Amino acid sequence: MNVHSSKTLQESDLVDAIRLSSYSLNNPADLKPLYNRIGDAQIVMLGEASHGTHEYYTWRALISKKLIEEMGFNFIAVEGDWPDCYRLNRFIKGYEPEDTSAFDVLQKFNRWPTWMWANWEISALAEWMFQHNKGLASNQKVGFYGLDVYSLWESMESIMGYLKQKDPAALKIAEKAFQCFEPYRKDEGRSYGWAGRLVPELCQDEVIGMLREIQNKLPVYNMDHENVFSAEQNAFVAVHAEKYYRAMVKGGPESWNIRDRHMAGTLNRLLALHGPKAKAIVWAHNTHIGDARATNMASDGMYNIGQLGRLHKGKENVVLVGFGSNDGTVIAGDYWGAPMQTMPVPAAQKGSWEQLFHLSGHDNKLLIMNDIDENEAYMKTPRGHRAIGVVYHPAHESRGNYVPTLLSRRYDAFIYLNKTKALHPLHVQPDGQKTPETYPFGV
């Protein structure tokens, strides 16, 4: 997909169309058109153009609170690791009295990039959720869960801790799987991926056997249904992480697709856990929640959770909300595992969606795609849409930080924030482990 192909209108016409079609976004009340668009949707996915921008987190938190308090949404599921997020979920629901604050729980988020969830913005949201849940019955408490696939060893350790108390016989099966993976832990699975090219089913049988054993025993485990669900979910993480590491070393789109299939499957299992009328909020990068078919990801053979959600649940039941900004600052690293730092975000690239929104006026804006049918021509041209990953080089962002995008087909709504600033980490230092490199943006 050519970013500047088939120009149907002059850029000045596009700028005017954006100005006429969008709503000014100055305060929470200005989000009313978005809530009207959401209506009775079952899933709302809230994106971000980076993993280190204060305003993406705070606006998503504001929207999430409204969806929880007034529109009956049951949980937030994020682009994060299951074990870490599940600990935060237990705190939010008041199940772990030894955890006295969200700050204490978030200090344990020690996988790089730590700032992604160990930040003051998430701490404030978690404390709000904790207060919201006080006095509610267990089946009414709002949860917080991780969708991602990276936590192989942490998930294995969680499984063994659970089975040690509940099922010593199954523990032996889990220990066998853990021992198979243990030699490859130092480099976070990369050496496992390479070894898997020589022995394709290196630890596959062990993790599948562990998952089957846990699933067979679920009816006899204790009555804490969330802990039982968590044990099974950690087993799914192990099975899919094993596939992910093998696919990662081969290159191409399959590792990305394995990851997003896992996230979509986790979301579906969480919805089933919460009942037939459950509603979910998803927080993930734009590259995960914006329909991949409206970008050049599709031509590369990639799909994502936004696309899968629309296909599986129906477009009317899934609302995809993208985010973007023109300039400011962001938290990121120079390389995988690098110390976090505040970096400048330069003014958006000429001809990009972000620049056109900027030229239409320096205010924040909300664009509802249903409102632009009569102006659809200005949305038919693919244009660059910025995507900043956890590794970022501002001086070279034009080389790979813009995704060719048909904006009206990628999202149901788009929130443009003209100038943004870096979020506020809790200053947790990485523990030396590196998140596996993902394709194509590390997001």
TrEMBL record:
Pfam family, any one: Erythro_esteras
Stretches that traverse the bilayer: none
Name assigned to this protein: Erythromycin esterase homolog
Top-level taxon of the source organism: Bacteria
InterPro entries given in the database record: Emycin_Estase, Hydrolase/PRTase-associated, UCP036794_erythomycin
Natural source organism: Daejeonella rubra
Ranges in coiled-coil conformation: none
BP terms from Gene Ontology: response to antibiotic
